[in-house]
Amino acid sequence: MTTEPGSRGDRPLLRVAVPNKGSLSEGAAAILREAGYSQRTDSKQLVHLDSDTGVEFFYLRPRDIATYVGEGTLDVGFTGRDLLIDSGAAAEEVLGLGFARSRFRFAAPTGTDYTEESLDGVRLATSYPRVVGQYLARRGVTPRLIELEGAVESSIRLGIADVIADVVETGTTLRQAGLQLFGEPILQSEAILIKHTGRDAMPTAYDTLVRRLNGVLIARTYVMLDYDVDNDHLDEACKITPGLEGPTISPLARDGWYAVRAMVKRAEAQQLMDQLWDLGARAILATDIAASRL
Ligand SMILES: Nc1ncnc2c1ncn2[C@@H]1O[C@H](COP(=O)(O)OP(=O)(O)OP(=O)(O)O)[C@@H](O)[C@H]1O
Ligand SMILES: O=P(O)(O)OC[C@H]1O[C@H](OP(=O)(O)OP(=O)(O)O)[C@H](O)[C@@H]1O
Ligand SMILES: [Mg+2]
């Protein structure tokens, strides 16, 4: 028998559930690739072993992933926070991954005046009955839940529901269906990594996966800023770019000048570069971080 590098005998070191389609699948494969794991090359492939790391990936329906992880069949999985809660599976969130962000909201035809408290006995269509049922039960409200697979926004026009609770990203689908939001946001969702609840003894490959994913998230969130500044403005410049643990300061060959290097939030980089320029800093460069371990 041949042994794959990174695996023990024919058993993979870690078995990971990855969404095979829908809003989560591309983002999950992309973050795994960025974290250095190979992914399937054909969308019909059900299983893929990354032989360098001994991690085996199972491509499954997004809704089923929490069930597999909750049953302990697979070690970890990529899913949505809303899907995890709706599953009721014995699985817990390990890490928010920052993509497939959405809000889960109530909506009703424009011009109506539904409130959360008015939903007792009202026909409420949703693909997430447990999320909605639990949320309203905490408020002592019991709607008539109508469970649908998707295209929930059409259910009111088609006469099978009075209100809906569904995933909202831009709000375009709601608007096109002539619906308006009401009530509070039920939950904010995003892609997450999950593991079995209460399973503490995880393989080393799990720690490596989490560290690598965290590294990608940091690399996506931050850029490296480099600039030159003179001694008179060094302290002020370091206040603008304190970095994570303090900026790196190196003397330049030019007398009285320093090179400074610090990580800054990508979203703030342009504004910080303007501030540094106004202060007298020059040769200000922002560089992408390809990967990180902090
Ligand atoms: N338009 C959207 N924008 C961002 N996230 C979304 C959007 N639609 C669904 N999601 C998220 O995707 C996850 C659901 O994935 P799932 O594959 O079951 O549905 P989907 O992406 O709507 O795909 P499909 O309806 O084509 O099967 C949930 O976490 C949900 O919050
Ligand atoms: O706020 P928006 O940007 O319009 O996005 C939200 C819509 O996207 C998803 O639908 P999808 O296209 O996946 O179809 P589905 O309802 O059949 O799942 C979700 O279920 C909403 O309907
Ligand atoms: Mg959908």
Automatic annotation (TrEMBL):
Boundaries of every Histidine biosynthesis HisG C-terminal domain copy: 219-290
Class of the enzyme per the UniProt entry, highest EC level: transferase
Intracellular or extracellular location(s): Cytoplasm
GO CC annotation terms, alphabetical: cytoplasm
Keywords from the named record: Amino-acid biosynthesis, ATP-binding, Cytoplasm, Glycosyltransferase, Histidine biosynthesis, Magnesium, Metal-binding, Nucleotide-binding, Transferase
Domain ATP phosphoribosyltransferase catalytic, first and last residues per copy: 61-214
SUPFAM superfamilies: GlnB-like (SSF54913), Periplasmic binding protein-like II (SSF53850)
InterPro entries: ATP-PRT_HisG_long, ATP_PRibTrfase_cat, ATP_PRibTrfase_CS, ATP_PRibTrfase_HisG, HisG_C, N-reg_PII-like_a/b, N-reg_PII/ATP_PRibTrfase_C
Named cofactor requirement(s): Mg(2+)
One annotated GO molecular function: magnesium ion binding
This protein's pathway: Amino-acid biosynthesis; L-histidine biosynthesis; L-histidine from 5-phospho-alpha-D-ribose 1-diphosphate: step 1/9
Keyword Amino-acid biosynthesis: yes
Functional note: Catalyzes the condensation of ATP and 5-phosphoribose 1-diphosphate to form N'-(5'-phosphoribosyl)-ATP (PR-ATP). Has a crucial role in the pathway because the rate of histidine biosynthesis seems to be controlled primarily by regulation of HisG enzymatic activity.
Family as reported in the entry's similarity comment: Belongs to the ATP phosphoribosyltransferase family. Long subfamily.
Record's protein name: ATP phosphoribosyltransferase
Gene: hisG
